[in-house]
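ok here's Alanine racemase:
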Amino acid sequence: MAFITLDSQKLKTNFDYLYKLFKKKNIDWAVVTKMLSGNRLFLNELLKLDIKQVADSRVSNLKTIKSINPNVETIYIKPPAKRSISSIVKYADISLNTEIETIKRLSEEAQKQNKTHKVIIMIELGELREGVMGDDFMSFYERVFKLNNIKVVGVGTNLTCLYGVLPNQDKLIQLCLYEQLVESRFNQQISYVSGGTSVTIPLIFQNMLPKGINHFRVGETLFLGTDVYSDGKINEMQNDAFSLYSEIIELIEKPIVPNGDLGTNLEGHSLDFDEENIGKTSYRAIIDLGLLDADVNHLSLKDKSLKISGASSDVTVLDLGDNRNNYKVGDLVEFEMDYMGTLRIMNSNYIDKKVINEL
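and the structure:
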């Protein structure tokens, strides 16, 4: 079985780096755990760190988090669905919201559970994902403010995830102004201006983050050490806390070009081959990892002498060329993954999960 490893010491290095960065700027932050897909083994290792807030887009994952550490504050980070209201109030201390009818249901459920449910109101700043339109925000807040067992603790925005709209000073200053308008008009303190995600971190380095932004929601940069703004890496962080391994289950020298009439493969693709390779051979390895488990477009082989030739539902075929590194059946090949690659792998029940260098 293919397996993914989490190096806890490398994860801690990344956490400590971000912890110091945010503390220096007086910024609170929540660790976004959706990349871990609710895996108890990895969540348990993560929660050994000094984490105050955890955020996730699946209420079942928040339930698991609360079972590991009931004292950590949890945030549900997408607009709640009606069918999930009861569970969200039970397992999420805070939720991100954009619909007044949804918040009314949260209010009713919070009263039933004898709780005060906290909300962050999301504002549309150009990404066209979730968010109340700016012109409607003040009247929206006024209606929410009157609801029982609901406390507005923040305003926020989401950028980059859908269309790639990047955060900048102007957009984040707009978000800060909404918070100031609320405090001025309603004489109510708003704790969080949640304008930060992984993509916003480089603005801190450039001294371009408005002082009013005091809350971040960070997943990718913590786990992968990425500079999401420029699609690069942060030098002081570890980029390989996760590694993927798959076993070679067949290794045979075969023709490079297939033999027979070609139709479409299982993904509906028609493939072309260079006629110059007709009659040539190479060593081809089959590994126990397929499209059911992974998106090979988001994986890269650690050994750059190997190439991915293609994949089907259950296996992937590698071209080893002349097999200069003398691979054999039973050997493991290692992959590096980007964010989407890791997310897909973590969401597969058929990939084993292992912790190395435990805390």
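+1. The chain has two domains: 8-232, 242-356.
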